[in-house]
């Protein structure tokens, strides 16, 4: 577990949209070695929902549009994966 002060000092320099984008990129890079489009599609859809539900007061509006895009692209990637 990270101490709360470390998280707080990180978030003071950046907004929550930038922090969520960093977590999204790191989780996407983490799923690449699995070579599964299903997991990549679930990851994109989940973060699309998170970006869409993040209040505009905490993040800039263009993160909401990123969320909408990920909500469209995520299921397409999921369905295109082989079983």
Automatic annotation (TrEMBL):
Residues in domain DUF8006? Answer: 1-82
Membrane spanning stretches: 12-32, 39-57, 63-81
Keyword tRNA-binding listed? The answer is: no
The secretion signal range is none
Q: Which UniProt keywords apply?
A: Membrane, Transmembrane, Transmembrane helix
What is the official name of this protein in its record? DUF8006 domain-containing protein
- Species per Swiss-Prot/TrEMBL record: Haloferax volcanii (strain ATCC 29605 / DSM 3757 / JCM 8879 / NBRC 14742 / NCIMB 2012 / VKM B-1768 / DS2)
